[in-house]
Amino acid sequence: MDEPLPLRPPPDTATPGKPLSGGRRVVRRLVRILGLLLLIGLVGHASWTWKTGRDLQKRIDALTSAGEPATIHALQPAAIDPSENAYTELSQAMDLLANETPAAKAVYDYRPHLAPPLTDDERKMLQAWIDEQQEALRLIELAARRSKVQSTVTLSSPLWDVSLLALKHDRTAARLLTSQALLDVDAGRHDRAIARLVELDTLARSSGSVPLLVPHLVASGIRYQQAQTLCDISPHLKIGQNAGDASPESVRAFIAMLLDPAAIQQEQLRALQGERVAQLDMFQRMEYGMPISPGNPSNNGEWPLVLRYVGKPYLRSNSAWCVDAMTSVIGTLDAPDIVAFKRKYAPVVSKIDAGKGSPLRVMSSIFLPTLGRPIELTYRLRTERHLAATALAIRLYEVDKGRRPDTLDALVPDYLASVPDDLMAATSPLKYRAAGEQPILWSIGDDETDNAGDATPRRRNSDDPWHAADRVVFLTPQPRKTPATQEAP
Questions:
Q1: Are 151 and 170 in contact (CB under 8 A)?
Q2: Is the overall model pTM greater than 0.70, yes or no?
Q3: ω into residue 413 within 30 of 0, thus cis?
Q4: Residue 199 and residue 222: Cα distance in Å, rounded?
């Protein structure tokens, strides 16, 4: 008996073990390949995240081991006794200066550089502002009697927002004090003029106590204003024991303060360390999806979770690179003069610029400030202070001896411990010429070239003495630019 034939499935019906069609095989392979690539990507991303996190932590640990601040908490200055802190009165004084009055605006808008001798209009203009700010001046005077000064602003994230809050009206207060000093010289109260200019140091130390770059630059500007005013009044300064005279002791103390660079150097170091901490803080905020600047409505949203996850190793890598860059810049601060600094800074900035050109360093380029110029300005500031101290020493010598010294060496050791250096030159003292009708003291200035005391301006309508061929201090009273001569072609 014949067996029945087995039934066969229809030709289009799939059976177990039957090969897939070509299209389906391609799709399955693509899925497997994509899954494998995704797995490799996730493993690679995790490895990159771990490596960049480890590298960043190594840098933070190295800073901590070296005793340098790496966190906002470590950067926060130690609190001082409120009874010793001048900041209380300074803060109250600057609150009084918050509203710009017409008298204050007139002083700020006045174009010629103010120096003795004042014109009648200048005297009236300054006096109108001084009269309405007597309470602010009284508070600043009280503050200057305190032994210490430290900003009470609490450092918090984001640090760069704290920087702006800490400034308040420091520069306005500095302008008020210099205005009062000029009026005091004009009125023959040279003792009070010196006292007012000393008070500027308390104001500068208050600004510089906030360890960030912008407050440090404000403090430097206040000190520069102090030194320039001293250079301006030194030919007019009366020193002696008569009523209204500045005492020799007060002048000698001022000279010593001007020649002591410790406060400026410490503030500069702390400012750059603070910038490094601010960068670490900013990258950390981005990593955790926090707004970059809570006070800015355009940046007050959180970063998407996926973007934070993907960008985490990139941010950590940029953060570590910024730490290295800032540490390299900080390493150049021990240069004795601007020439030595530029020599040390050149390879550092070359390496930084090369790194900024990489697509992997876009965020670093945004957050890393240009630091060469602020550091160079510190050498200019210290040179201005050396000029002011030397001008005062020459004036003190002239009062004692009845004539100016023939050379700066004649001031050593009775008036100066040594001839101050010109920090705009390589290991060179300040220049001095006593002969002739125009005795002068000078630094070679920004161009690092000695132009034999040439005070010719290099910028039209500029009364900044650093915009001349050399930075020259005249040791005899000079005619001043009035608004009419200021505008003359």
A1: no
A2: yes
A3: yes
A4: 11
